[in-house]
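Reply to dn_fold:

You asked what the input looked like. This is it:
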Amino acid sequence: MNAALLTTAAALHPTSDGYALAYGSHATHPGPTSDLDLLYTGNQPLAHDRLAQLIDDVKHLHAEHGLTLDEEVSYTTKLYATAQEIESAARLDGFTGVSDYATPVGNPQMLNSPAFKRRLLLNALTTPHVFLTGDVHTYRRHVAEAERGCALLALRITGSGKIRLADATSALLSSPEGLTEKRFLGYRPGPHLYAVLRRGLAALAYEHLVHLDHDAITWRPT
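and this is what came back:
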């Protein structure tokens, strides 16, 4: 992890509220030229000129450090989000009416849609990431809400009734067609995902939406 790179990225945070984080490979095991996935948040949308400046600054940061730019999803879509968008993502609004959970690879219109942006926001908060700067209390609340949403998504994909935790985890990792990671929901197997699901399920159990019995989950959609 390049601490100097992340410190510079934190200094680009464009608002006096919200928070910033880095996710993707730079939160785990970055390669020497891996792109730096960043998310900046605030209470209100950024003005067009301020967003354009933030995008230019992030691109300049990549160039300075010899990092690859990944613009399959445009920076206009993925770099900044409001608190309202994040809360919408945690409610699974990005999956409303969805029956095919695969990433729409090669479809720029879908990849840059408001619905897919919400899928990205949910993923950023429920995969390994690094808090960079800002309002840590709002950040922690958003993470907890996203973990609850992640657990609920796993249950919705798996189906109702009595489910093993392993089945709920598998539902997030692979589609029936065998699509995984970035071609599916962006999750990888490991302790982090297990912990996210455990915390999310605990939140759902507290709300009496599921019943937990060791590794068995019983739930009925409301």
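The radius of gyration is 17 Å.
Hope that clears it up.
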